[in-house]
UniProtKB/TrEMBL annotation:
Species of origin: Nisaea acidiphila
Name recorded for this polypeptide: Fumarylacetoacetate hydrolase family protein
UniProt lineage: Bacteria, Pseudomonadati, Pseudomonadota, Alphaproteobacteria, Rhodospirillales
Transmembrane segments: none
Gene3D superfamilies according to UniProt: Fumarylacetoacetase-like, C-terminal domain (3.90.850.10)
SUPFAM superfamilies linked: FAH
Domain of life assignment: Bacteria
Sequence ranges assigned to domain Fumarylacetoacetase-like C-terminal in this UniProt record: 27-228
Gene Ontology MF terms: acetylpyruvate hydrolase activity; metal ion binding
Keywords of the record: Hydrolase, Metal-binding
């Protein structure tokens, strides 16, 4: 097969303990999936079904790459999240079968141009310019569930320059992993290589050039990213 120009290489993530990499198909993000974060963003977590937005696969950056402060924004926020990586997909997946789709887990950041996202919210427009910009999704290595199981609780936190900013526990997620997969599969046909960024705890806030972000999830790993 020939192309009118050379296609970009496939986006993939490191896998702990393996030479093979995890190829990424789509990136789904769950909005306001921790109650305290929903409250800090001005919403009532008891009244909302899950909702999703997307980033692009090539928004992902792997460890040891810097996060470049993006243009057209003066208010860029960090959001620490657990990644759920799928090796099976389908539609209308029952909750009790959803975990069969999970290959592994990772630590990620959903970087957000909060000022631009806020403008879009006021206008009732999509969030892409606030969420899906270049290198907006730093992501650590994927850790196979065959090695660590399926974490249902454990600390999730983010420090900026050594100062704790976000702190929570995986058990505080409103929509748990199997529920997310099942609900999402009713809206989209999930596929091997899809990843789900599962929401962020309270404490989101701005970063500046020169900051160092240090994220951690118990049992999964760490992620250190420099803002440049």
């Amino acid at each position: 097969m020939s192309y009118v120009f050379t296609p970009p290489p496939a986006v993939s993530l490191l896998v702990r303990g393996q030479d093979d990499r995890f190829p990424v198909h789509r990136v789904y993000c769950v909005g306001r999936n921790y109650a305290e974060h929903a409250i800090e963003m001005g919403h009532d977590p008891d009244k909302e079904p899950p909702f999703f937005f997307q980033k692009n696969p090539d928004n992902l950056i792997v460890p040891d790459l810097n996060f470049p402060y993006p243009p057209q924004s003066n208010d860029v926020h960090h959001e620490i999240e657990m990644v759920v990586a799928l090796h099976k997909g389908g539609t209308d997946i029952p909750v009790d079968e959803a975990m069969d789709c999970v290959y592994g887990y990772g630590v990620s950041l959903d970087m957000t141009r909060r000022d631009l996202q806020g403008e879009m919210k006021k206008l009732g427009r999509p969030w892409e310019i606030g969420k899906a910009f270049e290198k907006s999704a730093p992501c650590g290595e994927i850790v196979p569930a065959s090695d660590i199981g399926h974490p249902e609780n454990g600390a999730i936190w983010l420090k900026v320059n050594g100062e704790m900013r976000q702190e929570g526990d995986l058990n505080q997620m409103i929509w748990k992993v199997p529920e997310m997969i099942s609900y999402l599969s009713g809206l989209f046909e999930l596929a091997p290589g899809d990843i789900i960024m599962s929401g962020t705890p309270a404490g989101v806030g701005p970063v500046q050039r020169g900051d160092v972000m240090h994220g951690h999830i118990d049992g999964i790993g760490e992620l250190v990213v420099n803002v440049v």
